[in-house]
Here is the input.
Amino acid sequence: MTGNIKQVNGTSGEGMSMCVAERKTVAVAWSNAVKTTKQHLMIQVGGAPLPDVLELAKHAESIKADSLLCLPELYFKPSNSEDLTEYLNMVGKAAPSTPLLYYHFPEMTNVNIHMGQCLGSLGDRIPSFVGIKFTSTNLEEVSQALNVDNGKYAIFLGSDQIMVAGMALGLNSFIPTSVNMFPELALEMLEAGKKGDFTTARKCQEKLSKAVIIISKYGTWVQTMKAAMNILTDINVGIPRAPLKALCEEQIASMKNELSHLNYKI
Here is the structure.
């Protein structure tokens, strides 16, 4: 579970705003693309009614995804580790040959089951289960999750502004949205952290966090991130899908102005 990973149909990719057929189409496109890019293909299958989640899991396995990522049930939410384990077990059985990870994002899902405790109680009940994507700023929780059974599970940190703190705890895997806009800065931070040069790593984190704060203040993260990608990269990712709204011209102009003051090329 290391190396260059492409996560598909997650939060930034707005997978939860697509129908099943669209999500399959995107997954197939990326399964073809990674044959050239040589990336690990992680397909997010959750955020839909359970029959659709199981169908998406089976489809991901059929196109030889390298791993699955799955949100919890979002309406009849799991309230404890046992509920969540049973849900993930059903997903795992739908794609038994593909490694499965849980997508812990309590800010969006309102499912706030303690990941350290949940992983600690899991045992071998889900044979394909290998870890979590942890999009939260709770460092105590992620530290406990990281140390379950002597580091048994892969832990991917998804929070952009605490990457250095995560490295200090021993994390070495990250899936932050900001790398779409600032890949060199993130890579410099990670390389410094690996060398134990936390002075340099903190400086990179501070610069990245300043940019993230500017970008995110104009709306929800997906809305603002897509606008920032259009500003800062050569890739036109378009506008977010309803019910999200695109930023207005005044907001985009203001974002450009603020980012230019951080010496980013606009």
Remarks:
- The mean pLDDT is 95.
- The longest helix spans residues 198-216.
- The two ends are 35 Å apart (CA to CA).
